[in-house]
Amino acid sequence: MGKNIIITMDNEKLSALKMYTEQKGTTVEEELTKYVEQMYAKTVPQNVRDFIDMMGKQQPASKPRKAPTRTDTET
User: Fold this and answer.
1) Cα→Cα distances 3→15, 16, 33, Å
2) pLDDT in tens, 42-58
3) What is the rounded distance in angstroms from the CA atom of residue 34 to the CA atom of residue 64?
């Protein structure tokens, strides 16, 4: 599951950025996601990225379900 990143930007600048990215067939969110991925690849060492990828591919072991207990009050 991903985390959200909140940034602050002047409203007029954001409006202009949205308008021009849409003209190029993309969105601000898509472009920021690409940039963050590039920054991650550039900044985080390869062995750490490999480890994170490996851990992400492992499926967490599912907990066994308990059978519902039946409580009869019959005598």
Assistant:
1) 24, 26, 12
2) 999 999 999 999 998 88
3) 39
User: Cβ distance 43 to 36 under 8 Å?
Assistant: no
Radius of gyration over every alpha carbon of the chain, rounded to an integer in angstroms: 24
Domain ranges of the chain: 33-57
Exposure of 21 by Cβ count < 10 A (0-12 exposed, 13-18 middle, 19+ buried)? middle
CA distance 34 to 21: 13
C-alpha separations of 8 from 11, 22, 34, 44, 66 in Å: 9, 20, 19, 25, 48
